[in-house]
UniProtKB/TrEMBL annotation, chain A:
InterPro entries: MetI-like, MetI-like_sf. Keywords: Cell membrane, Membrane, Transmembrane, Transmembrane helix, Transport. This is Spermidine/putrescine transport system permease protein. Residues 70-277 form the ABC transmembrane type-1 domain. Pfam families: BPD_transp_1.
TrEMBL record, chain B:
It is found in: Cell inner membrane; Cell membrane. This is Spermidine/putrescine transport system permease protein. InterPro entries: MetI-like (IPR000515), MetI-like_sf (IPR035906). PROSITE patterns: ABC_TM1 (PS50928). It comes from Kineosporia succinea. Belongs to the binding-protein-dependent transport system permease family. Keywords: Cell inner membrane, Cell membrane, Membrane, Transmembrane, Transmembrane helix, Transport.
Length: 294, 290
């Protein structure tokens, strides 16, 4: 078998020298993503205090203070991501197509992306704090007697996640919705479908893949909540999220194996949620989509 | 008024009846959201110009001293220079590495393609902390963290996949016949890239470059985990100064947050001139004006 014919047979399957263009990207991802991950995984099985390879995992799941970070993170991230996606759909549905001021409105909704967590945190502390404008206003109109506690607890972090997550979810959903051919809905309308049926039977199935992707990306954003959980939250109590636990293990106790353990646990939980969402989506509708939603 | 407006066909009155309350609810919610947002931003702005502000609607008097303090006290000039250095390096490297990868993934099919694709999807789907901590551990071990190169390397992890995923649809839109014609005329892969693809892809490259720029300037976790004292970027400096409460006046932190927002706003408004954000994931089929 000569060298030339081997090259021919490979080329028939799509393997030739042009695939070398993949090399820089692959090397980078392997060296900076896969290798550290595998290294961290290995590290997590080498506890500093000895006690068997699973000691770190036993330590994490055995200690309620550490274990509860999982529940606290999910309790913040799931509702925030759900709300962001659910609120984006009707807003984006009304805003698709062309109209005057669309560019202005999109720009206004994009502004929160420029704020950054620190400004959002400072703003929430000022605005929704005990003597902030919100509480002053609610007291002035007589709705409440005592200031509501909206910051330095669960709600502060939740609001921060909505402010940073909603614009992102909205832009993605708007983009998926605009990718759906409007003539499909017009066809449904001409067959007598009302607005609710048009949405339920035509737009929604076509949007489902985009919804799943948007939920996943928004969930990743919310799940990795870190600075705002410290700044507007209650980082030793109700909003001690899993990334705080990982950070403390690495940079306050310098226990890198334990920090890697927490990072791995965090990754596994996050991928499990995404897996469930994508599985549910695959059960829903698996035809072609209007946009590149797959 | 019995005249029918051109956008509404007579068959539509039912739609108005059903849609109206829902529409009001939606616009009301959007309005409240925007109002709260305005309140959040305005309270930071007001505080950054306020002299003393305790239990009143507005501060007692106004001043710009917090901005002066933030500029000198935080060494803001150096921090902004570092931020731009990191961002530019990340943009250039991720475009140079990402575009060829996107090209192969958009044009070719080969064994293991799905695996390669998954490999580029994972860094985007994982929270930065999960790979940031092991990555920082490795980088510290080989002496690359705590300085500029560590910050740049760490930021490349999500940015290269981001360029790959945003460029793939742009490349798919280019007719392969153009490339084939160039190859027939004797152009090699390199000249196909520089003479044919690069000019056609310029809008896409610009779009993803600007987005990577915005992303990198705003990226907190990865920079926070790998930065040393001389490689702090704007977000990390902000977080540190706010977290170390009591050392700096809160108004001074607010002033810095306003500066950060202005930097991001300039970047984003520039980005929006090049990219229609809604066209990133799909080709928009907009309803023709009727």
């Amino acid at each position: 078998m000569s060298d030339l014919s081997l090259r021919h047979r490979l080329a028939e399957r799509g393997v030739d020298s042009r695939l070398l263009l993949l090399l820089p990207g692959l090397v980078l991802v392997l060296a900076l993503f896969v290798y550290p991950f595998v290294y961290g995984l290995g590290l997590s099985f080498q506890p500093v205090d000895g006690g068997g390879p699973f000691e770190n995992y036993r330590r994490f799941f055995g200690d309620a203070f550490q274990r509860d970070t999982i529940g606290k993170t999910l309790w913040l991230a799931l509702p925030a991501a759900l709300l962001n996606v659910a609120a984006s759909v009707p807003v984006a549905y009304r805003l698709r197509g062309r109209f005057r001021g669309k560019r202005l409105l999109t720009t206004v909704l994009v502004i929160p992306i420029t704020l950054g967590t620190v400004l959002t945190a400072e703003g929430l502390l000022n605005f929704a704090g005990p003597s902030g404008w919100l509480n002053r206003f609610l007291q002035a109109i007589g709705l409440i007697d005592d200031p509501l506690r909206l910051v330095n607890n669960y709600w502060g972090v939740f609001f921060s996640l909505v402010i940073s997550g909603f614009p992102f979810a909205f832009l993605l959903i708007l983009s998926y919705l605009s990718g759906i051919d409007p003539s499909l809905e017009r066809a449904a309308a001409s067959l007598g479908a009302g607005p609710w049926n048009r949405f339920r039977l035509v737009t929604f199935p076509l949007l489902a893949p985009g919804l799943a992707t948007t939920f996943c990306l928004t969930f990743v954003l919310a799940f990795s909540v870190f600075p705002s959980a410290i700044l507007v939250g209650d980082p030793t109590g109700t909003t001690r999220v899993i990334s705080i636990a990982a950070y403390q293990a690495a940079y306050e106790q310098y226990d890198y194996p334990f920090a890697s353990t927490i990072a791995i646990v965090m990754g596994v939980i996050e991928l499990a949620v995404i897996g469930i969402v994508l599985f549910a989506r695959s059960r829903l509708y698996t035809g072609t989509t209007g946009g590149k939603g797959a | 008024m019995t005249a029918v407006t051109p956008t509404e066909t007579p068959a539509d009155p039912r739609r108005r009846l059903v849609a109206s309350p829902v529409g009001w609810l939606i616009w009301g919610t959007v309005g409240l959201f925007l109002l709260a947002l305005l309140g959040v931003v305005a309270s930071v702005l007001v505080n950054s110009f306020g002299e003393r502000w305790f239990d009143s609607w507005l501060p007692e008097s106004w001043t710009t001293q917090w901005y002066r303090q933030a500029w000198t006290g935080f060494g803001l000039f150096d921090v902004i220079v570092t931020t731009l250095e990191v961002a530019l390096a990340v943009v250039v490297l991720s475009v140079v590495v990402g575009v060829p990868t996107a090209y192969v993934l958009a044009r070719r099919s080969f064994p293991g393609k799905r695996l390669v694709f998954l490999l580029f999807l994972l860094p985007i789907m994982m929270p930065p902390i999960t790979y940031g901590i092991p990555l920082a551990t490795v980088l510290y071990k080989i002496g690359l963290a705590g300085n500029l190169s560590g910050v740049i390397l760490a930021n490349l992890v999500p940015c290269v996949p981001f360029v790959v995923l945003t460029m793939t649809p742009f490349i798919e839109q280019i007719d392969p016949a153009i490339e084939n014609a160039a190859r027939m005329s004797g152009a090699g892969t390199f000249s196909v890239f520089t003479r044919i693809l690069a000019p056609l892809l310029l809008p896409g490259i610009l779009a993803s470059a600007v987005l990577v720029l915005v992303r990198t300037v705003g990226m907190f976790e990865l920079t926070f985990l790998t930065a040393g004292p001389t490689s702090t970027t704007l977000v990390v400096a902000l977080f540190n100064s706010m977290n170390a409460a009591g050392i700096r006046a809160q108004q001074s932190v607010d002033a810095m947050a306003v500066i950060y927002m202005l930097v991001m706003l300039v970047l984003l408004v520039t980005a929006l001139r090049f990219v229609n954000p809604t066209q990133l994931v799909s080709q928009v089929k907009e309803e023709p004006p009727e």
